[in-house]
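tmp note - Phosphate transport system permease protein PstA
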Amino acid sequence: MNAKKIDKFATGILYTIAGIVVLILIMLLGFIILRGVPQLSWSFLTSPSNAFSAGGGIGIQLFNSLYLLILTMLISLPIALGASIYLNEYAKPGMITNTVRTMIEILSSLPSVVVGLFGFLLFVVQFKLSFSIVSGALALTVFNLPLLTRSIEEALKAISNDQRNGGLALGISKWETVTKIILPAAVPSIVSGLILSAGRVFGEAAALIYTAGQSAPALNFGNWNPFDIDSPLNPMRPAETLAVHIWKINSEGIMPDAAAVSAGSAAVLIIVVLLFNLSARWLGRTLYRHLTAS
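out:
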């Protein structure tokens, strides 16, 4: 067999494998969406859930998921960004830097249920934050921080050293070089990392079962005082998220339309993640054009 035939054969195998992966993804997404979309309605998306009777919705769970996502990213993004800048731009190669990177790798490989139990013991029990949005956000920060730190660090590494040397040659400080040249150039890759980590956070369930809780108390969406117990913005209330709601329905749901609610909830989860991905990619391109004047 000559080299050309071997090349065609190997290329065909690679295309076949890629096609199988894409086909599996399309079948999975198609099954979830086609099964769940017929259950969707405005009432389903906005009304509270029912534990025993049919006709409940996911309004509170959907809000809780978005609220937890925002709080988690607000906590984890500054920490991850600062750690990435230090590791890539300031840290000198050595035992301490290697140890930090090893610890990040170890943290990124922890199962989410282990992170949830850690959050339960530390935030819920030791810090006495109880089952709350704050406990869930802190646990998700521990869960999300290693992946986000590595993705931002890789985005910074991808920027050519010529840009760093050019900034220093102009007489500006290293900090100004990082903030005015390196970070704007890395924005698209950083946003891609945010997309991946945000999707991971939005669909997380195991870590939140032990920290944010499995209940969704009634909320007054006309009261936006974060210190009131029935306010949606109260960070100290328990908050069942959409992913936890899906798990709970499939494990112990007793409402007559449990299968329909589960299918609709799964479809919403997938659609929201897809919309978030598309919106974030558009935002990344827009920010890149604005910050680099291109």
